[in-house]
From TrEMBL:
Protein name per its UniProtKB record: Dihydrofolate reductase
Domain of life: Bacteria
Pfam families reported in the protein's UniProt record: RibD_C
Xref: SUPFAM superfamilies: Dihydrofolate reductase-like
InterPro entries: DHFR-like_dom_sf (IPR024072), RibDG_C (IPR002734), Riboflavin_Biosynth_HTPR (IPR050765)
GO biological process: riboflavin biosynthetic process
Taxonomic lineage from the root: Bacteria, Bacillati, Bacillota, Clostridia, Lachnospirales
Domain Bacterial bifunctional deaminase-reductase C-terminal: 3-164
Cited Gene3D superfamilies: Dihydrofolate Reductase, subunit A
Signal peptide boundaries: none
GO molecular function, one term: 5-amino-6-(5-phosphoribosylamino)uracil reductase activity
């Protein structure tokens, strides 16, 4: 069965964007050292990308305005805007949990939650994220867009692996359930 994977970077204090919505702080501690490419390995198991309008808009206007970086992947953009689909990009007003449930029942590779925080948290509330692949960036932002809100219900996770390079720590967790009298 397809898994829903959150693959995202956040600051050490839990933010995915600064106060202005910028992600220009996404680098290791030494600008002269290349960061490892864990994305290439991750994306091999993905054929579907989900994101909110703010994430999509940031990609096409700031991060990669000349080229759609997810070409060849079915990409769903959650928006209330009425826009025409183009190539592999699908604009949808469908609720995230409904779309994810439908996609999980179809054949295919994993489903990547690319962003943003609103989509992540809607899917967390209904327990639809199977894996959490989080790169912790060595910076304290102090404010901005928090990945996980403080009101989130407790979610139990199991650490699968860690990787460290250039001050960045990548953590891969999967969800787990609590057993009566014994934590799984």
């Amino acid at each position: 069965m397809r898994q829903v994977v959150l693959y995202i970077a956040m600051s050490l204090d839990g933010y995915i964007a600064d106060q202005k919505g910028s992600v220009n702080w996404l680098s290791g501690q030494d600008d002269n050292i290349d960061n490892e490419d864990t994305y290439s390995e991750f994306i091999k198991d993905v054929d579907t990308v989900l994101m909110g309008w703010k994430t999509y808009n940031q990609i096409v206007t700031e991060l990669s305005p000349d080229e759609w970086v997810y070409s060849g992947l079915d990409t769903y953009i959650f928006t209330h805007r009425s826009l025409e689909d183009k190539d592999d990009i699908h604009f949808t007003g469908e609720q995230p949990e409904q779309l994810v449930e439908r996609l999980k029942s179809e054949e295919g590779k994993n489903i990547w939650i690319c962003g943003g925080a609103e989509i992540v948290n809607q899917l967390l509330k209904v327990d639809l994220i199977d894996r959490f692949h989080i790169a912790v960036i060595p910076v304290l932002l102090g404010s901005g867009t928090r990945l996980f809100p403080e009101s989130q219900d407790k979610k139990l996770l199991r650490l699968i692996t860690t990787k460290q390079y250039n001050g960045i720590c990548e953590l891969l967790y999967e969800k787990r359930s609590e057993r009566k009298n014994n934590v799984q």
